[in-house]
Specification:
Number of domains: 2
Shape: rod-shaped
Radius of gyration: 44 Å
Order of helices and strands: HHHHHHHHHHH
Number of strands: 0
Helix content: over 70%
Length: about 240
């Protein structure tokens, strides 16, 4: 066996009993072999020391990183708690007090309950045309037609759906002006809805106090919008 192979097996601790005898004999009798063994040992020792130092530095670096990460984690955890708390508080305040948010939550288009559009109905007139445009979402046209009906007949439904068309067109001040023409004290069928949508219009215009007064009126008397009014008042708090 060549000396180099013997050396490799020695350092790999794979020598057989016979090879161990041969190795010890060479180590005692062959100076060049003995020098090579000493040299290889020193090299491997140096490598081991370097590896240990490198490993130590790596571990220290890892520990420092862990500490930094732990500190950062603690920092971000604490920061996160504050952000969640104050952010949540701000969001709560926004959702609780924002008239715009509450308007979006509570507003629903008032349906056509007067003259439902029937497909194939050949008897068209001003009233059916007005409601057809309203049901189709053509609020400019429905506004014009309901206005025309009200001028000719002065009926409550025409005034109410004019105002609703205006709300759909986001003309809230004009809608309020029409709602004001209703004599809600007479308690006709439209009265609670007039108060409700007028209150929502005020809410949209950020006139919370006026909205609250109307909602309180609805909440105090039995009507179709009573429960909704109480609910919205609680939200406005």
């Amino acid at each position: 066996m060549e000396n180099e192979a013997l050396l490799n097996k020695y350092f790999e601790q794979q020598l057989s009993e016979e090879e161990k005898v041969l190795f010890e004999s060479l180590l005692q009798n062959d100076s060049e072999f003995a020098k090579e063994v000493a040299y290889q040992k020193n090299v491997k020792k140096a490598i081991t020391l370097n590896e240990r130092e490198a490993l130590k530095q790596t571990l220290q670096s890892f520990e420092n990183t862990k500490k930094e990460n732990r500190n950062n984690s603690q920092f971000w955890y604490i920061a996160g708690v504050f952000l969640l708390f104050f952010g949540g508080l701000a969001w709560f305040q926004f959702t609780k007090d924002s008239p715009e948010q509450l308007y979006q939550e509570y507003y629903q288009s008032y349906p056509n309950v007067v003259a439902p559009t029937v497909r194939g109905d050949n008897e068209r007139n001003l009233k059916s045309d007005a409601f057809y445009e309203y049901d189709s979402g053509n609020y400019e046209k429905s506004l014009y037609l309901f206005s025309k009906i009200y001028k000719e007949e002065a009926v409550d439904y025409a005034l109410f759906y004019q105002a609703m068309s205006l709300m759909e067109l986001k003309r809230y001040e004009d809608a309020i002006a029409l709602f004001d023409q209703f004599k809600t004290a007479d308690n006709n069928a439209f009265s609670p809805f007039v108060k409700w949508y007028k209150a929502l219009s005020y809410l949209k215009l950020n006139e919370k106090e006026k909205a609250v007064l109307l909602l309180q009126e609805l909440a105090e008397e039995e009507n179709p919008q009573q429960s909704k009014a109480k609910e919205l008042l609680d939200e406005l708090g």
